[in-house]
Amino acid sequence: MPLADELALAGPQHQPARTPAIVAVAACSSSTSETDSPAPALGIRASRAQTRRAWWTRERVVGGLRRFYEDRGIAPVSTEDWHRLTGKHGSRGGGPGTRRPYPSLYAVLLHFETFRQAWEAAGVDTGRLQESWSELEDWYLREGVGLLSRIELARDLRRTPDAVHRRLYDLGLHSYQRWGWTLHHVERVAQLPRHRLQTYLDRGDLPYLRGSKCVYVDPADLIAVREIDWHSPPAELEEAALRSWRTRLVLVLAGVNWRARSPYQPHPVLRTDRRWSPRFVAPGPKPVEVAAGDWVEVASPVPRRPYCLGRRGRVHLVFWSCNRNRQNSARTSAEPQWMARVEFPSQHGRSRGPRVTYTLPLACLRKCADATEQAPKCEPAPDHGRRALAGPAFEQAQQRHPVTDTGGFSAHI
After folding, report:
1. CB contact at 8 A, 297 and 288
2. Sign of the dihedral through C-alpha 69, 73, 78, 82
3. What is the DSSP letter of 148?
4. I want to staple 220 with a disulfide (CB 3.0 to 4.6 A). Which of 4, 23, 42, 244 is the partner?
């Protein structure tokens, strides 16, 4: 007799109890017998595990993070630190979430991308220390460098000024080169003084963009500056201007108003008491052939600069000046003349730096014949009798701290 018939005759009290897995398999086999596509029991168990509701929901994770911060007083932002502080080390994993006072690493990252986002949702400020930079923050730095100060950028991004400085260095952004040429750059390349450029800015002939520390201009707009010889301009200025003119030509051919979308706009100074001087006076011949970078010597006395006689320095700028300001001026006369900005080594101990710059008439200078005849060594300041008062102690101090020559400058080490 078959086993099923014997169990039926024996009655229900002698039939073995079916386990839930057997019941599930039997139900599955009975339901799929008609379609001839039976499903395995493991697939049924996996589907039940997937449909099971997780204990650590988003609200419970946020509450667990707050509980951890109240208990420990710290807010770790790395996964390693969180696992080290909350993980059950040395015990078997798994089990219901009710046994854990704090959410696990997997539970936190299930609802948040990073621990910083989780702590922010819990209302805990973790700061921005060692946090990676996002693409949005890099875009804000590119658009704000030069226009906003470093402190303002750091405040907007909730970073430190040092972190902003380092990120600008990593991105290759320079505040003096981001938005065109600065007036100092134009002055150095075109050999044109700043006050002449300022006249064109105030008059509205030269559009500009004012930044947080300097004023930017487009090299193509420098065509309005008549002091620049555009028949033979400097190579650096010519290349920058041609690049900008080509960009404008492309925009014009595309039917775009390039001036309206340009960041450089004219800002004339509207003052009724302002009287503009003649726009341009043709420069005369140079009394001395001196260019920027040459070493010169003050050969003749300079009005209001008697201490410059006989000193040697390096020329930074040579320009034609029409300035009529006679207040504390070194000009020999009120007529337009050639001037030179010369840098000398400082001769005073109370000076703010090792070098000092004076603007002198070009007629009072003489070009040094040899490049080795650079600035002479500075004479030591008078001791006003301290050597006689100090006696042997002064001599011993000079032996311990000798004077070292550093390329024409004297420095006490």
Report:
1. no
2. negative
3. B
4. 244
What is the C-alpha separation between 73 and 315, in angstroms, rounded? Answer: 63
pLDDT for res 222: 94
**DSSP state at residue 97:** G
Phi–psi pair at 217, nearest 5 degrees: -135, 160
Q: How many CA atoms lie within 13 A of 255 on its CB side?
A: 0
User: Distance (Å, rounded) from C-alpha 298 to C-alpha 307?
Assistant: 10
- Alpha carbon distances (Å) from 383 to 349, 400, 404: 11, 18, 19
Three-class DSSP category at 111? helix
Counting beta carbons within 10 angstroms of the beta carbon of residue 187, is it exposed (0 to 12), middle (13 to 18) or buried (19 or more)? Answer: buried
- Coil, helix or strand for 68? helix
What's the count of helices (H) and strands (E) in the chain, helices before strands? 16, 10
Distance in angstroms (rounded) separating the CA atoms of residues 102 and 91: 16
Backbone angles phi, psi at 313, to 5 degrees: -155, 180
DSSP state string for 179-223: TSEEHHHHHHHHT--HHHHHHHHHHTSS-BEE-SSSEEE-GGGGG
Q: Are 144 and 134 in contact (CB under 8 A)?
A: no
pLDDT at 399: 53
DSSP 175: T
Is residue 173 within 8 Å of 142, Cβ to Cβ?
yes
Identify which of 371, 374, 306 has the alpha carbon closest to the alpha carbon of residue 343.
374
SS (H, E, C) 374-390: CCCCCCCCCCCCHHHHH
Helix 41-51 vs helix 20-31: crossing angle, to nearest 10:
110
Listed in sequence order, the residues at least 6 apart from 196 whose beta carbon sits closer than 8 Å to its beta carbon are 225, 227, 319
Residue 115: name the closest of 60, 78, 65 by CA: 78
Q: Compute φ and ψ for 181, nearest 5 degrees.
A: -95, 135
Are residues 169 and 201 in contact, defined by beta-carbon separation less than 8 angstroms? no
Low-confidence ranges of the chain (pLDDT < 70): 1-53, 88-98, 129-130, 271-281, 323-328, 349-353, 369-413
Determine which helix (DSSP H) or strand (DSSP E) holds 359, and give its type and residue range.
strand 355-361
